[in-house]
Amino acid sequence: MKQTSYAAKTAKTAKSARTAAAGTPATASADAPALPAPGGPSGPRPRPASTVAERLLAGVRSQGVLAVLLSVVVVASFVYPTFATLDNARGVLVQASFLAVVALGMTLVIITGGIDLSVGSVFALGGVLAAWASPWGLLPALLVPLAACGAIGLLNGLLIARAGMAPFIVTLASLLGARGLLLALTDEGATTHLVPKGSAFAELGQGSAAGFGYPILIAVALFAAGGLVLQRTSFGQTLFAVGGSGDAATLMGLPVARAKVTVYVLSGLLAGFAGAINAARLSSGVTIIGTGMELDAIAAVVIGGTLLVGGAGSVTGTLWGVLLLAVIQNLINQIGSLNSSYQSVVSGGFLILVVVAQRYVSRTRKSL
């Protein structure tokens, strides 16, 4: 009996020691104060450090370009008095509106993990087709370029999404094809199609409302619609999912191929529409424009915080990126002693910095 009692007492002592070593008292003392549970009535649950860091990094990626833009505008306003004038601001916005519309379509494409190198040539082709059809009225001047440029986007999307071809190769071929078609329609640039003066189509590019040109208002409306589609619709969420992981999106039952085809069609439509509005503003279909515009659009999108690998981005960031490039170009013109080619140098420098920052952000997110 004593041996049994002693063994039981020994086992109880060992159990108490193991419990204490694990950090949990064997018995609760009546005098010991009760520790409040995390998230209980005594205070809020502490937020994980990784969540805070991820939100901070996302904010830097999406709004960092806005801080740079505001800083450049403030400094330029003090250094160059003519920069802060209303007329100069309107000029900057009008010049930026065409690139903004093209970059909006590019944003949707890059979010899905793709690229569209054809937008510059499609932009020029849309302008020539709009000027060619403008004598027949406003509707043909808009529908003809939209139909042709939308067809180019549809071809790109089908070859990429259905045939599995690389976006770089497909859109590079479209760039060459659209530029060749443009030269064929204008006898290799010898023929310039003019927009009738005083027509409704010309008014669309040259008119204004509330002191702002129609191209500015059109760009703002398109960006508002693009933001709503991207953030508030299932289609927008599908684009993020496709860009994040196409295989995972397929397993989830999402229409991956249809989403890719749609974004390339939209990219072609927006590039053609921007070209048409530009032709209305210039009163002619200029054949030499649009060269390198695809690179400016990509730079604006990436500077705005959209990841080149896809899966993250916003149309708001793209808008800030477009405005930053436009402000830099205007500042170079304000200086006067610098050639406009310096804009490419500055844009390239910004692009390198942003890509390096994106790589750092991606590595930081993986380590959290």
Automatic annotation (TrEMBL):
Alphabetically ordered keywords of this record: Cell membrane, Membrane, Transmembrane, Transmembrane helix
Pfam families assigned: BPD_transp_2
Transmembrane domains' residue ranges: 65-86, 92-110, 117-136, 142-161, 168-186, 212-231, 263-283, 295-328, 340-361
Name the UniProt record assigns to this protein: ABC transporter permease
Biased composition, class Low complexity, residue ranges: 7-34
UniProt-listed InterPro entries: ABC_transp_permease
Region (Disordered) residue spans: 1-49
Membrane-topology descriptor: Multi-pass membrane protein
Keyword set includes Transmembrane helix: yes
Biased composition (Pro residues): 35-47
CDD domains according to UniProt: TM_PBP1_transp_AraH_like (cd06579)
Record localization: Cell membrane
